[in-house]
């Protein structure tokens, strides 16, 4: 990558300007995006102005935001040089992680180690997954380093998505023999009555978010084949009773809807060579009134035990539509006032 920051001339308004020069004009076009929408996203997030001047970008603004914008642009350009695609979420992730990055980006061919301060990358068959916030980075690190990890926080923070990505990564790497994905079959505030079909057809609607995540990381035909071979299982929590889950990566999603007894039953399924991830949102409990959440009890009883990690997310870690974070913050504020 040939990229340089040019020093502005003295005695001019350029004292508040950082000038970046890019060698590859084709990559610069991709960096800017259609109608400069990528630049507009960075401008809006960081409060700077970015001007195109041939193969240069001029960043105008206060020193701190200007330096961060330059760092983000360098990292995104390095991403494009490495042959990776770029979406709005990648830009948002670079901005969120900008304060902790070294600003140099990763050059083509560099493979930074996951646990040596570099970028965290999860390789799957269909895509490369990268955490987009510091909390997500810490969470992914915990999934690899601990046999039992909890991810607790609001919707849209990537708890389940990242857990399934790590599961697929460890599976294709030969570290586990099976992937087991589960969640309680609890209706979200409405009674659907008796559902038609066989057992699979009855429970599949509850499991659909897990299917969606899995299909994001593995080709559809491979998912079907692995499920037929029982090397990937997606099943309701009730189906876990009596089993010992050895050499498997096990994910329990929506754990706030597990009862205390169900949670204890699930946690004690952990077998040799396995890893287990529990994800949940304490604000979205759909259990009947008076029934305590097994997630809350597990958090109270297991905090502080060695090799069990608890990871927490807030509205700042939401990586869905920006409005989702604002909605969560509004509800949290209303609960605080109430």
Structural topology:
Blueprint: E1 3-6, E2 17-22, H1 25-32, H2 37-46, E3 49-53, E4 56-60, H3 63-81, H4 88-96, E5 122-123, E6 128-129, H5 134-145, E7 148-152, H6 159-172, E8 178-183, H7 199-217, H8 220-228, E9 232-236, E10 248-252, H9 260-267, E11 275-280, H10 294-302, E12 308-312, H11 322-337
Parallel strand pairs: 7-11, 7-12, 8-9, 8-10, 10-11
Antiparallel strand pairs: 1-2, 2-4, 3-4, 5-6
Could you explain how this protein is built, in words?
This protein is of the alpha/beta class and 338 residues long. 39% of the residues lie in helices and 17% in strands. The strands form 3 sheets. Strands 9-8-10-11-7-12 form a 6-stranded parallel β-sheet, sandwiched between helices. Helix 1 (25-32) crosses helix 3, helix 2 runs parallel beside helix 4 (88-96) and helix 9 packs across helix 10. The chain is globular.
């Amino acid at each position: 990558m040939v990229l340089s920051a040019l020093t502005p001339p003295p005695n001019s308004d350029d004292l508040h300007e950082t000038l970046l020069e890019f060698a590859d004009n084709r990559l610069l076009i991709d960096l800017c995006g259609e109608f400069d929408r990528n630049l507009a996203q960075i401008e809006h997030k960081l409060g700077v102005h970015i001007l195109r001047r041939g193969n240069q970008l001029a960043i105008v603004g206060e020193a701190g935001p200007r330096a961060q914008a330059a760092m983000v642009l360098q990292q995104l350009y390095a991403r494009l040089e490495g042959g990776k695609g770029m979406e709005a979420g990648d830009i948002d992730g670079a901005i969120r992680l900008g304060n902790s990055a070294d600003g140099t980006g990763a050059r083509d061919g560099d493979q930074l180690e996951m646990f040596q301060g570099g970028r965290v990358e999860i390789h799957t068959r269909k895509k490369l997954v990268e955490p987009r916030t510091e909390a997500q980075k810490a969470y992914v690190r915990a999934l690899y380093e601990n046999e039992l990890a909890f991810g607790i926080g609001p919707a849209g923070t990537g708890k389940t998505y990242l857990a399934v990505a790590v599961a697929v990564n460890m599976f294709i790497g030969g570290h586990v023999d099976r992937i087991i994905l589960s969640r309680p079959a609890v209706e979200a505030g409405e009674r659907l009555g008796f559902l038609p079909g066989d057992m699979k057809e009855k429970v599949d609607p509850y499991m659909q978010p897990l299917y969606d995540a899995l299909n994001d990381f593995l080709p559809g035909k491979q998912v079907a084949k692995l499920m037929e071979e029982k090397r990937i299982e997606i099943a309701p929590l009730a189906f876990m009773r009596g089993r010992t889950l050895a050499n498997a990566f096990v994910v329990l999603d929506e754990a706030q809807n597990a009862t205390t007894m169900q949670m204890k039953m699930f946690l004690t399924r952990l077998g040799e060579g396995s890893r287990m991830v529990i994800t949940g949102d304490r604000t979205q409990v759909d259990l009947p009134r008076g029934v305590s959440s097994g997630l809350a009890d597990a958090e109270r009883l297991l905090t502080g035990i060695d090799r069990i990690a608890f990871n927490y997310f807030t509205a700042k870690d939401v990586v869905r539509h920006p409005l989702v974070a604002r909605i969560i913050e509004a509800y949290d504020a209303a609960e605080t006032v109430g």
